[in-house]
Specification:
With about 325 residues, the chain is an alpha+beta fold. Helices cover about 45% and strands about 15% of the residues.
């Protein structure tokens, strides 16, 4: 087994003069981030220990985003085997923090975030990324019965049959040609007002990107698990009109993926609580339940609502206590 260097020891192998290291708040993954003050300025060290994390997808997507004219952190040094990346520091002005300090900035920030998604639909998707296929979509949505609400064998069989049909007939029947970042929300965006156009939206946390349908990232932005986004209908219409998308074919995919993503996140938040002792994510569950109710009311999701609606609308208090 290869000996893994400590962050300080790894930095000593690089042509950097590091004056100080400050550890940043952790996220839900196994990665940690450190801000480095160097003679060349401020940099970020990503510490992603193998085999729990793999930095190669992150580096691949970062280069692809930069190549298509978007703002992803420039990578200066990386070691795939050790699991370290030294990259550009975008600072601390996440969209979340800017919204908290300057609520009037909300239209500007959401316009910027939408412009990135529209820009991505106009680019050729990078090669080498996995498809958002039926296996991955099903694995994600099954996090709900795996962690949030236990199903009977009959319910689980019905669940997988209906979801298999919905994903195959509604989602995967449409072209799957876009880069999908998969975790596209205001916590993962940095406001860079000194830049121009789509580059004002700095992108973070995109290592799980795949090739799929662009509705997924739009759902991720507008149906944010951690905050209520006002004017969803306004932003949706702006996206449809600017991207030149036909609502008749787009909206069923939007609602099915909206339900799929919401149920996945509910499962993830329960897993974080039960397995990883991170109960803070449970505070977002009531918001997510309102999303489930909205999506179940859409015609595209009617098969699931009819067959398992009562199970999905089970008492929220019971789910949290379970």
């Amino acid at each position: 087994m290869m000996h893994r260097l400590s962050p300080a020891a790894y930095l000593n192998t690089l042509p950097l003069s590091v004056q100080s290291i400050h550890t940043l708040p952790a996220d839900a993954s196994h990665r940690t981030f450190h801000r480095l003050l160097t003679e060349e300025g401020s940099l970020i060290l990503m510490d992603a220990p193998p085999p729990l994390e793999d930095i190669r997808p992150y580096c691949r997507v970062a280069h692809a985003l930069e190549a298509c004219g978007l703002s992803a952190p420039k990578i200066f040094h990386h070691d795939d085997a050790q699991g370290y990346v030294v990259m550009e520091d975008f600072g601390d002005n996440t969209f979340t923090r800017v919204l908290a300090s300057t609520p009037d900035a909300e239209p500007t920030l959401y316009q910027s975030a939408l412009s990135v998604l529209i820009h991505l639909t106009q680019q050729e998707a990078p090669r080498g990324l996995p498809p958002y296929d039926i296996a991955l979509l099903m694995r994600e949505v099954n996090l709900y019965p795996d962690w949030a609400v236990p199903f009977s064998l009959e319910q689980r069989t019905l669940w997988e049959q209906i979801w298999g049909d919905l994903l195959d007939q509604v989602v995967l029947s449409q072209p799957q040609k876009s880069l999908v970042l998969r975790d596209y929300h205001v916590d993962n965006m940095i406001w860079l007002p000194q830049r121009d156009g789509v580059k004002q939206c700095g992108l973070l946390d995109f290592q799980d990107a795949v090739i799929g349908h662009p509705a997924y990232d739009l759902v991720s932005l507008l149906w944010d698990a951690r905050r209520n986004v006002p004017d969803k209908a306004r932003w949706l219409m702006l996206y449809l009109n600017t991207a030149g998308v036909q609502a008749e074919s787009f909206m069923p995919v939007y609602f099915v993926l909206g339900l799929q993503r919401t149920l996945k996140i509910i499962g993830i938040f329960h897993r974080l609580n039960r397995r990883d002792n991170k109960p803070q994510y449970l505070q977002h569950l009531p918001r997510l339940q309102t999303y489930v109710d909205v999506f179940l009311a859409q015609p595209a999701c009617a098969p699931l609502a009819k067959a398992l609606g009562p199970v999905l609308r089970r008492s929220w208090d019971n789910r949290i206590s379970g």
